[in-house]
């Protein structure tokens, strides 16, 4: 194996193992920032040694062993938790004396609780949403600061600062490294799911910049969602979110043209939809509903996505069911954006005039005044009603509000098409 191959292997191992590694270390040192530093030290050691010694049979166990040795050294050097040093050192050293097989078992046994604790710590509400996203992608997605900055079109120093501040905030607030219990679990779980879905959405439809999609973010969010579903199998909304992301991700190959231009849902070649992801999404939806999540937000949105996934052609879409699902969603999670999506569903199910009346009722909603999809939807409905001049004005306004360059180009094209009718 060449040095280049070994470095690629190390990169792949780090992507897969770093969340488990950091989670296991955080359980010992009780500090996410210190745990990440120890894990990074182990990675540096691997980069130094593996090109000469070769990749070990169990690279994850090797990294954990190396990092735990570093933890012992650091506790001795800095006298961290002096009163517990002897106890912790004995515990760790006893573990290190076990065979590789025992190490595998050691890694597998607590990793569920450790990884779940890491997820809840990184997504703690004491942090801002931006900080939660950055820290989650760093610790659980294995992305570098450069990759996160590129994905969200934010300067790299800004992302680095967010991550440093987030770790310091968690340490200063003495946020416990544990899975919350009782009523707090539901509150914190909502924060975790929000962060994962925010990451997915930014990948699925980028809010700004020149790319319509950023698939890497979708992949990372899906990976975290699947891990979370395995760690919290009794939580219906976890499965609901996974179902929603799986089904939406199934359309990835059909959502862009050869030059990266957006392709809207009704214009997509459904033969390019990923049937494996659809089947996985429908299975996750079934689990969410079986656990009693039928009227919870992510499960409802997944059920809406499933209606599209089951339709072999746009004309076969069950729009009355989608409208009914949006009615339920608007009751359990009222928001202006849900109301706008509900208007679209009612327009498809009951006619553009019905939808336009619902959209017009939202025109004075403060949260939608700068939201480009409000005039975009209005332009679409006006066009269907033959009011092409008004539609052109709406599409032009939508284009002026859009921050994504690809989306802006599409809206201007639709404005031009309306002007020619």
UniProtKB/TrEMBL annotation:
Name this protein carries in UniProt: RNA polymerase subunit sigma-24
SUPFAM superfamilies noted in UniProt: Sigma2 domain of RNA polymerase sigma factors (SSF88946), Sigma3 and sigma4 domains of RNA polymerase sigma factors (SSF88659)
Residues annotated as domain RNA polymerase sigma-70 region: 17-79
Source organism of this protein record: Dyella japonica A8
GO-annotated molecular function: DNA binding; sigma factor activity
InterPro entries: DUF6596, RNA_pol_sigma-70_dom, RNA_pol_sigma70_r2, RNA_pol_sigma70_r4_t2, RNA_pol_sigma_r2, RNA_pol_sigma_r3/r4-like, WH-like_DNA-bd_sf
GO terms under biological process: DNA-templated transcription initiation
Endpoints of the signal sequence: none
Protein origin, superkingdom: Bacteria
Domain (DUF6596): residue spans on this chain: 188-288
Domain RNA polymerase sigma factor 70 region 4 type, chain residue ranges per copy: 120-170
